[in-house]
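Pipeline run #58 for the internal structure catalog. This entry was flagged by the ingest filter as a single-chain record with no existing model, so it goes straight to prediction. Upstream metadata was stripped on purpose; only the residue string is passed forward. Reviewer on rotation: M.T. Logging verbosity set to normal.
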Amino acid sequence: MDFSLMNLQKHLILNRFFLNIFGAASTGELLSSLSPTLDQQRNITPAFWERLYHHGKTYFSEEQFWNYQQAIETYQLRLQKTRRQPEFTLQYFQVLAILFSEIFLDWRYHQPERFIEELNRFLNAHQSMFKSPVSSFTISDLNKIAFWMATGSGKTLLMHIHYWQIQKYSPIRWDNILLITPNEGMSYQHHQELRLSGIQSVLYEGNKRQLAVNDNAVLVIDIHKLMEERSNRGVRIDVSAFEGQNLVFIDEGHKGQATEEKRWKTLRERLGESGMIIEYSATFGPVISKNPFLLEEYSKAILFDYSYQFFFADSYGKSFYTVNLKTNRYSSRQQEEVLLSSLLTFYLQLNQFYLHNDEVQEYYLEKPLWAFVGNRVTGEKLESDVLRVLLFFRELFEKREEVNQKIQNLLTSSEAPSSALSQFLNEMAGNLSITIPEVSSILQNIFKGQGQLEVYEILRAQGELGLKLSGSDEYFGVIQVGDLSALKRLLNKFQFSLKPDYFSDSLFRSINHLNSSINVLIGAKKFVEGWNSWRVSNMVLMNTGKGEGPQIIQLFGRGIRLKGRNFSLRRELSAPPHIQLLQTLYIFGLNADYLNSFLKAIVEEGISPEDVKGRKYSSQYEPPSRKEKSERKKSIRKVFVKAELMKDLIIDVRPRFFQLTSGKNVRIEPNLQSHQDNHCLPWELLDWDELFLQTLQLKGQLGLHHLIITPEVIHEIITSNQYTLKAFPHQLEITDIRDLNPLQQIALKIIKEYLIRFDQISQ
C-alpha cells in the first residue's frame, strides 16, 4: 500500500491526540494558531503560553501547566550553562516538542491506565479516517515515542532534554542507556555533543571493556556494530549483551530498504523490549511509505511532527536554489558547464564571506564548503563520480587559458540550454555588483595556489585522500569514500600519482574546525548520513537519488543547516544580497535525472514546486502526466447540508481527564450518562463573519481547498440543530463576554467535523 505524505500524517494517532489537547486537528493548524503569539523573530511571547493553556486547560490544572512551562525554561537554562551559550534560546517548535514529551512522560509514569483509556477513546472516535483499522493502545505502546523532525531542527539538543525528562519522571534504574546511530562518524559527533551538554558519554569503538559504563552514562554505538548472534570476532557485539531494562535513543535508524528495515526493526525491539525507546528521524515519511509494515508501529509512536514542510514554511534553515539544464541528457560539454557554474557560484560565496566578514559574524554564518556527493567510486569509465571531479580540477590547473575562454563563452552564451546558466551567473554577479574574475584569481581563492594537483593518502584516517596544490602546505580538499583501494586503482589508470601522508590526522573531521583549510569535500553519499556541519553551501549531485527518498532527505539536510542570527536557525528574508547568497544552498546536478529525482523527493516532503527557488533556470522535476494528475486531483465541490450527515454528527466537547489540584493527582470522573441530552448552541450570540473567516482558514489547514462553502451554508449547519451536541450546561452559559470565545470555538468544531465527513462521503 502506498501512502502519500498527507495520508501518513493523518495516521499519526498519538500525535493527533496531543494536537487535539491544544485545539488543533493537524500540525499545520496548531502552528498557524500559535503564529500570532510569536514576535517578528519567531520568539515566544507570554501569549504563546496563554493560548496553549486556554486550549489545554480541560486536561490539566493551571498549576500543572505552569509547572510544565517552568520545567522547559529550566532545561533551556541548563543548556545555556553547560554549553556556555548564554544567548541560546529554544525555538518555538522545539518548545512544543518538549512540552508534548513532558506531558507524555508525566502521564506515562503517573497515570498509565488512565492515559491508555483516553488514547483508545480518541482512537475509536477517529478509526473511520484510517484506510485500515488501528489496534487499540496497550501499555507496551507507551514504551516508544518518536520525533519526526527536519534535519537542522535541533534533534540533538531535544535528545539531551529528553534524557533529563526521563531522569525526572521514570522511577526505573536503567540497566543500560544506549544511543544508536547510523554510522561511526555520527557516533563520534553525538559523543562530543553529549559531553558539551554535561551528559556523561562513552563512545564504543570496539573495546568490549567500554560496555561497562557508569550509571546514567550514555553508551554511543552505531547500529552496524550490533548483531543478533554471538561472535568472538571483530568489534560487533550481540544485542543480548544489553540485558534488562534499557533506555534506548535512536538517531536516524532507517535505511529505507525493506530487508534492512526488518533487520533493524528486530534489533530495536530486542534492545527496548522491556525498557523505553525514543527515536528521531527526518525521514519517517519516505521510509514508512516504502515499508507499510511500519505504519501502525509509528502511527502510535510519533509524538511530534515537524517535518521539512513545516521547517521550510517557518523560514528555518537555508533557502535552496536548484540549477539544472533543460535537457534530458547532458553531453560532456554540458557537464563541464554545470561544473564551471558551480565553481563560479562557490567562488562568489567564498569571496563575499571574506569581503563582509564582520557582517557575516553577526549572522553566525560559517565559511562556505563545496560538496560533491556521489554514489559510485569505482569503475573504469570517465563518468565515475570522483574521477570526473578530479579530472575537472586537473584541467583547471593545467589548462588555465582554455578554462578562461570556456568561462567567457559560458557567461556570454545565448544558446539554450547554456544560456540558462549564463543568465543565472550574470544575475547573481549583478546583484552583488561585482565582476567574475579570471580563473587565476578563482584558483587562488578556492584552492590555495596555482600549482599542480597532488593527491595524498591520509594513512591515519580510514578511506581518506587529501588534495593540495604543489608548493602549498595546506590541503584544500578531502575525498572520503568507503572503498579506497578500488578508487586508487582507478586514479592510477588516469595518471594520478598518490603520495603517502604519514602524519596528518583526519581531514574530514577537521572540516568544522575554526581555521580549517578544507574548502572542497568529495565523497560517496553515505558519508553524509547524520553528518553535522553548518558549512555546506554548494552541492553537486552525482549519480544520486534514484528511488532513494530517505537518503535524499538526509543529504538535503546536510546543506540547509543554518545557525542564523542569535542562533535562531532562521534565514533572514530581508537581508542584503551578500547575506542571502550565504544563506542559500545552491544545488547542481551532473545529470538531469539526478536533480529531478532530488526535487521529486523534496516535493514529496510537502514542499510545493513553486516554492523551489531557481525555477526559471531549472527543469525541475517532471510533473505528473495529465492522466496521473486527473486521477489524483480532487474535484471542486460545493458544500451543502445533507440530512443523513447531520443526524450522524456527534460533537462532544465535555472535558474528561484528570487534573492536578494543590499538587495532588485527582481523577475527574464526570457522570457522562447524566448529560446525554442534545444541547442547543446559543447561535444568536455567534460572530458569523468571524466564523466564516475561521472556516476559510480551517479549510486550508485541513487541506480541503477543493470544498466551496458559503456563509449561508455555515449558518444552516449551525442553526439546524440536527447534530448532537454533548456538553455540560455551564459550557453553553454566557455570563461574561469572555464566554463568547469558547462558544465560537464550539461552533467552529461543528463546522470542522461536518466538512471532514462531507469530504469523506463525497469521495
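catalog note: The CA atoms of residues 651 and 750 lie 7 Å apart.
catalog note: Residues 637-762 form one domain.
status: ready for reviewer M.T.
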